[in-house]
Amino acid sequence: MIKGTISEKKQKSLYEQDYHLWLITTANQLEENNIQDLDIHNLLEEIESMGRSEKNGLQSNLQIVLMHLLKYKYQPEKRSNSWRYTILEHRDRIAITLENSPSLKSYVGEIFDKCYQKARKKAATETGLPLNKFPSDSPFTIENTLNEDYLPE
After folding, report:
1. Does the residue 46 lie in any domain?
2. Which run of H or of E encompasses 20?
3. Which of 29, 56, 126, 138 could form a disulfide linkage to 116, CB 3.0–4.6 angstroms apart?
4. What's the pLDDT at 3?
5. CA gap 118, 131 in Å, rounded
């Protein structure tokens, strides 16, 4: 029992002092099935954090795509290759995330309306157009938004 407490303190210290070394040590412990020496508390926090990061990245990329689609649709005179590139780049990021974590596909549906509302406000701020220039409900479907060939004309 005392040995476990010392090991736990040692691991927490390692986590705080050298994160990369903690990762290597934790991976080795898992590979060797050395469960008793694992820093479970920090390992769980890291796993939960990874899930949050995936979701946050997905949400951010979706907002960027939606904002640029709005700008593209409602400011046709200012369309540029830069806008098209940004749309393509962030669609690619979303596609990679969904390819690596297919279980997040349903999450896109959960956050789509919220992302659209944020994108709408950002588009209004960036373009200087009034917020009511952009519809309250998304003029784009999820499928259009994620389709690498779709641009609103």
Report:
1. no
2. helix 19-31
3. 138
4. 41
5. 11
